[in-house]
Amino acid sequence: MPKTANLNVDVLIDFISGTLPVPGGEEVIDYINHETEERNNLDAINVFIADCHDPDNKDHFSIWPKHALRGTLGQMFHPRLKIPDGSFIVLKGTGKRNNGYSAFDKEDVEIYIKLGRWRLPLSFKTLHDLLVSLEIIRTNVRGLATNFCDKATALDSANLGYMTSIHLNACRGIPFPDDDPRSVKKALEEMEMAGVELVY
Fold first, then answer.
1. What is the pLDDT of residue 115?
2. CB atoms < 10 A from the CB of 54, how many?
């Protein structure tokens, strides 16, 4: 049984060409596709993670422009992203209060498995519950954006005891000055301090 989970975070239309584009966001797709094809059904499971926000989440949308709203085109995975059958899909931030930065959130999460054209709902309440059931011990984080959802997911993964790495050639961040606590530089420092392996 695979012991590694590839966590592909928020490779969504809104974060690439929509309402909240991450600079260079589309550049991560080819790397993620290659790694997914190389490792699918061999030594890793693939988890595709997506914001799926309620438009009435006033707290979150006081910080960010509206993005990844349930049922909109922008909330969909980018059409070039390849999601094989048997992949797991995690929707996060589905409620009216939760920011949904981390795929490991304990509330406002929905988990599915992709089979053909269908997404079948699973009974797991959290991503951690799913990974424990699959005896996963290592996670590889990649996607968008380095200094927000990637960081939150990687930190929670490490804090939950998974051997965690973030693959920076498959991540892009939202630009802030280096001395800003929201910067990519600060995010990398925080992750490294928490024991996350930085893979360049």
1. 96
2. 18
Q: Is the dihedral of CA 131, 136, 137, 143 positive or negative?
A: negative
Q: At 156, is the pLDDT very low, low, confident or very high (cuts 50, 70, 90)? A: very high
Which CATH number is correct for 4-144, 3.40.50.850, 1.10.540.10, 3.40.109.10, 3.40.50.300? 3.40.50.850
pLDDT at residue 38 greater than cutoff 80: no
pTM above 0.90, yes or no: yes
Q: Report domain extents, the chain.
A: 4-144
